[in-house]
């Protein structure tokens, strides 16, 4: 599949700024799951900024093509570009975009992409289309895909006082026996984030529900640090 015209300048910039040394370090940090050009975040964001200034955001009629192309590339920087540029238009995306989000979550899955997609893309989607929450999260929870289940836990990460704790409790209770590190970590993380809004609720929740040690520690971490 040839490089879409919109992405050719980005492709050139990635190759021109590649660092073998940094690529090896980044690959090692990600457990050797992905290849990298070796472009660290500050430079990568500068490349993105220049690309946006010259070529704009992803054209609406090419979003699926361009995101899918990026997701098929071995270098992780392409996936970061796709999801971060989608984040810039997430508040205006139409309802069909959720299928692309699910594709992104379920392919080349790891915390560095899934967590961004959950909080910034899926979270924004559900604020716009709350009537889709039950239908979609039911599917994801039943899928046995750990990353879709983690998305159920984390899509409310930025909701603060708008957090639906009854819904979150339902997810936690279905996953509380999971042995998966990324599920246990996510349970603690979302509770920790909510503790910044409603600390008493989280303290009470942790005391009255049997969470894993990891989830328990993560949930109360901010409260301990804030004392």
Explain this structure to me?
- By secondary structure, the protein is mainly alpha-helical.
- It folds into two domains: 1-88, Leucine-rich Repeat Variant, CATH 1.25.10; 94-227, Leucine-rich Repeat Variant, CATH 1.25.10.90.
- It has helices spanning 8-16, 20-29, 41-55, 63-72, 76-87, 97-106, 111-128, 133-142, 146-154, 165-175, 181-195, 199-208, 213-226.
- Helix 4 (63-72) runs antiparallel to helix 5 (76-87) and helix 12 (199-208) runs antiparallel to helix 13 (213-226).
Proportion in β-strands: under 5%
Residues in helix, %: 55-70%
Order of helices and strands: HHHHHHHHHHHHH
Number of folding domains? 2
**Shape assignment:** globular
Uncertain parts: none
Question: What's the N-to-C terminus distance?
Answer: 55 Å
CATH class of the largest domain: Mainly Alpha
- Quaternary status: single chain
Largest pleated sheet: none
Q: According to CATH, what is the topology of the largest domain?
A: Leucine-rich Repeat Variant
How large is the radius of gyration? 19 Å
Task: Sum this structure up briefly.
Helices cover 67% and strands 0% of the residues. The termini are far apart.
Give structural attributes.
globular; Leucine-rich Repeat Variant; 227 residues; mainly alpha
What is the secondary structure topology, with strand pairs?
Layout: H1 8-16, H2 20-29, H3 41-55, H4 63-72, H5 76-87, H6 97-106, H7 111-128, H8 133-142, H9 146-154, H10 165-175, H11 181-195, H12 199-208, H13 213-226
Helix pairs in contact: 1-3, 4-5, 5-7, 6-7, 7-9, 8-9, 9-11, 11-12, 11-13, 12-13
């Amino acid at each position: 599949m040839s490089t879409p015209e919109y992405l050719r300048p980005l492709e050139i910039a990635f190759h021109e700024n590649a660092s073998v040394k940094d690529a090896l370090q980044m690959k090692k940090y990600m457990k050797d799951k992905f290849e990298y050009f070796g472009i660290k975040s500050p430079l990568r964001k500068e490349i993105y900024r220049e690309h946006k200034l010259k070529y704009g955001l992803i054209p609406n009629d090419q979003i699926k093509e361009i995101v899918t192309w990026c997701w098929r590339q071995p270098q992780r920087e392409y996936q970061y570009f796709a999801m971060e540029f989608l984040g810039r238009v997430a508040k205006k995306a139409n309802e069909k975009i959720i299928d692309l989000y699910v594709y992104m979550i379920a392919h080349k899955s790891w915390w560095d992409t899934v967590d961004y997609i959950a909080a910034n893309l899926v979270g924004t989607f559900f604020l716009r289309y709350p009537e889709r929450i039950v239908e979609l999260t039911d599917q994801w929870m039943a899928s046995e895909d750990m990353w879709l289940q983690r998305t159920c836990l984390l899509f409310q990460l930025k909701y603060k006082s708008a957090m639906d704790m009854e819904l979150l409790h339902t997810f936690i209770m279905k996953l509380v026996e999971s042995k998966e590190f990324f599920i246990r970590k996510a349970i603690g993380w979302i509770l920790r984030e909510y503790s910044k809004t409603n600390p008493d609720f989280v303290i009470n929740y942790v005391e009255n529900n049997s969470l894993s040690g990891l989830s328990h520690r993560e949930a109360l971490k901010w409260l301990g640090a804030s004392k």
